[in-house]
Give the backbone structure.
Amino acid sequence: MPAPYPEVSPWQRGVAWRGGSVGRALEGSRRCELCGAAGRLRCRRCRLTHYCNVDHQKADWVSIHERICPLLIPIRTSLPCLISEKERKHGMEQLVKRQKYVIDLAYSTAQEFVLDGKHKEAIPAALQALHFSTEVYGSSSVQLVPAYLLLAEASTGVGHLLQASKYLSQAQWIVLRTPDCSVAVQCKLHRSLGLFCAAEGNFEQALYHLANDIYLASSTFGLKSIETSGGYFHMANVFFRQNKMDIANSLYAEVTDIWHAFLLKSVQAQEQILKSQPEMSPFTEDKEVSKDCMTEAQQAEAIRVLNVVLDVREQAPKQRPGETARVLHALAMLYYLIMDLSKAREVGMKAFELVTQLPQQESLEAIGHLLKLINSKPPYTK
């Protein structure tokens, strides 16, 4: 039996959305989920989602529709008319809960794609997050900003700068008209604007927005926080592209130091928990000890950032073995915490060997201790 690709494509602003009471307009609209063109295909499972062609259907299926297909049936089906007010109110409450669940699922899925560098695959999922956010919160709510920024980043990643600019303009407009907008949202906006300007080659504006990102993040989370480190990292990349290596190297070093300190504390905290609970089984250990360490998004960011810095260090004409060893040590701790022990061991050994060649070997003991922790894990641990 062929795969039931849900003939869908990313929803665009201005296309009528189907959900709740709007579901009554479904049969009349039949618009492509991704582009808003006339829908000629329909998902064979939910039978409620339309697409203009097979390419859009497959794109949506791969991105998000496979996960949300059965969830759309109760969302896009109209409530019966002949029910009591109490039942109608309960039905609307359940509808909103389902919509919010889809928002979270679609956003996290799109974010995973972006962090993996799969920008094209992220767009349909991000559009779904935007679509349902509009339904739940309204077209001018600050709750839409994260989806707009994710769409802008994904569009920039595939080279659609004009579309990315439109998404950023919408996000900026919402933030400007929301006086009590959170610092976290403002940071995300400035970072997205900085990345977009860098993609355009407008480095001066990119540095301006990234400086605002760093200022806002540091005033809320601290200069040495991992939240602030992202601004340092992207600013370092801009200076790197301008061949201003002295500034770029100092910023890369700052990023490394922030993550190194954070990961070292996380490893030490895990050790303390395990020592205080020796009866804990290895399976429980993975779930209970690591759950408060980092979110999945932070883990993905750390892997991406530290590997980029490592590439810069290893490919630099003028080698900085001390800095390279520090990045390797941070990566080894990271892989250890997320239980990727083969990579942790490989990277840890590289760090250990590099430090043994340095005149000053302050970190040798710490790296050696980490390798002991890695080797003490049971073989069935990832």
The first strand starts at residue 41 and ends at 42. The chain has a mean pLDDT of 86.
